[in-house]
């Protein structure tokens, strides 16, 4: 009669989970994704560590040196070393470049003292240097005789299970070790560097060439004979396009700033003086525009200095896209006190974009105007992620950049109709309650 083995098979074959702990690559099998893991702490631990995508090394501190005890499958794939190759060896000797040994020693010292380490590091693999987010997670267990006997009996753990998740004994019988977790950032870091260089080159060349075009166009306009209106208009169009290219170069820089910087949770500003400063500046730049400020209620919000860009961009759009010779703009700050419950997936009938969050937690900055409504296709760039096309562009990019900035602070950009007759574009930001 064939006896059923530990994996449930009745064909007399060996269990791939319990009876064959060593894989061909030399790393230990910590779990089988095709079968349920045993209901013990050790088996659940093995199953989790074995199937995470990050490279994980378990090590034990011996005289302050991290000695490899085990690795997961991802470590073998990423670093190229099998567990058999490095088990019992110094982890740093295998993966730390010689010029980074002092850095690694400092991280090990922190881990041995019980601290969790987070740091971007360069490590050597069988295929060359790569960049990682390193996390060193320490553990220190009391001797099993003193602390684990009752727990092990209750959980069904045996001595082999305990040895698999703990390091070596120290003078007090304690075991000190840790886990090194490596998230491969190589391609992300390389792409960031490439984009940074490309962005710098393109912005520099774009701005320089735009300045050349604008400068020559100004001289051409001065040299055009009186009465040649067609030539004047053509040259003026070229000049406007050159200035638009300069603006695009600046916006490209802003995109990079927004995408690379994340505000700290404790970062906060008072929008009232910021708004007043923007309005004062725009009044000087656009003396024909009437720009009003109303502060019905304010409060500190979760944001940083980049909020200024968002307000400036919306005020500039309100002036620029108004055909009136004397455009009117109103910047209004309020602290909402009532609840808002709307459907964010509703079509044109819901032009607010509210998300059902109780709005008494928000400070809202309204930028209103008396100009034409923002076309639906430009709002769609924000609301539905529509593509900015040569036919439909207008202020779409500027609105998208503003939305990107506001989202960085956990806020939102909404659209409505103002009682001035034009647009009411609102920045909603989380209010930071006073402590």
TrEMBL record:
Q: How does it sit in the membrane?
A: Multi-pass membrane protein
Establish whether keyword Phosphoprotein is in the entry.
Answer: no
Compartments where located: Membrane
One CC-aspect GO term: membrane
One example of a Gene Ontology biological process annotation: osmosensory signaling via phosphorelay pathway
**Top-level taxon of the source organism:** Archaea
Presence of the UniProt keyword Lipid metabolism in the record: no
What's the protein here called? histidine kinase
What is the protein's species of origin?
Halorubrum alkaliphilum
Classification from the root reads: Archaea, Methanobacteriati, Methanobacteriota, Stenosarchaea group, Halobacteria
